């Protein structure tokens, strides 16, 4: 079916796996068509574009309309190539969902567009380069740098020279670098060579930190090396790459004899040096991380902190230290390859969403959740999750701290701060906080709420005649009697002394009076009787007004003889 098509076309199934490809696709990908079959289609997309490619292909397979996309294709043994991708969804003879993907080579067009960017302002161009360098990796640094240098305005020749070694006498450097000619991303290498900067005073000044920018003339050794590639080169600006205190190398931008250096040229060189130097610093840090893998493993397995490594693609544990095995109650062998879902109370879907959201920032994230141990015990843990790359693979490092006891202690402190110690009812401050919030959140269509003000009758006489222990017993008995009547979402508080309050959400006056009467009757079975004032919340009314009305009715109940309800 695909053989007669001139454009490169591949067909993928609902798992995004290539099921067929024509000869043109084989030529574009750099492999025979039969060698493409069975491979995941997104594996051929440059890593920074891979998420977008997968999302677009998934949407297409789901039946959504997807516009053409411009992506970078990873060709077998031949670097990157810009392509334009379009697709159509169809069903094969067995009814299986498929997508036919047309992959058009647009490298020539992109090269023309890159050449056109020289008309873009230099400040905008440098901003573009800074963004491109954000995602560069050690393996792709040289390629990205050379494509970028070819776009630096009207520069005839540009180079990044990376510092490799400083000899003990401090004057001899071993440099290695690559040069990119104007208008092309083709790379032409200058072999690593020893350069005695004692013969180049200007460069020595730059490298020693005494200058941020120097002009290099034809008699200088670095220019002599470059002239072998471009005989017209006569002058260059050299910028030391020193984003921090450490010198990392040099960036040189050269021009032919006819070019007169301007302040704009100098500003361009300094700004470009900052961009490239920052990128080089970042890449070196990444490289150092890769080279320290053995040290990381020693620290990982020797640490007493609970640690495990997660493969974010499969949400499985790829490694766990002994501290993790001891904490969760599994052997280390049992934990290797374990589904992360077994350690958490979340569903698999919720867990996948959570891991993805944590990775989006690309930095350490701290979350709290409940995790389950091998014996079924659930613990409250704090997890520090950090995306990291080890041996060119992406992982998430999780450092887990058991905070169950701390959170229980905190919850207990919160309870003590919001409740009355004697009766267990809410205290005055917490009661009014909760009622204020409930009144603010209540919808217009909700039934109104009601406030009950309660006061134990002749409570002073109980204290005076029987003592304060008897008084405390009466308060506790009354609070317990109230709880037998109230609902779980009713708010019950001791405001002070023998005075209590109840807020009944979504309750009208008639029902509130019935509840109040039930409380009064329940109190008769304890050591004291109670007088109760009841008020219904008015639309738009304040809590202060509601409190004042209920308090007045409590006063009326006491004046009428006590042990009664007035509403």
UniProtKB/TrEMBL annotation:
Gene3D superfamilies for this protein: 3.30.450.40, 3.30.70.270, PAS domain (3.30.450.20)
Domain PAS, chain residue ranges per copy: 1-64, 292-362
CDD domains for this protein: GGDEF, PAS
InterPro entries assigned to the protein according to its UniProt record, in alphabetical order: Biofilm_reg_signaling, GAF, GAF-like_dom_sf, GGDEF_dom, Nucleotide_cyclase, PAS, PAS-like_dom_sf, PAS_4
Name the UniProt record assigns to this protein: Diguanylate cyclase
Cross-referenced Pfam families: GAF_2, GGDEF, PAS_4, PAS_9
Boundaries of every GGDEF domain copy: 447-567
Stretches of the chain forming a coiled coil according to its record: none
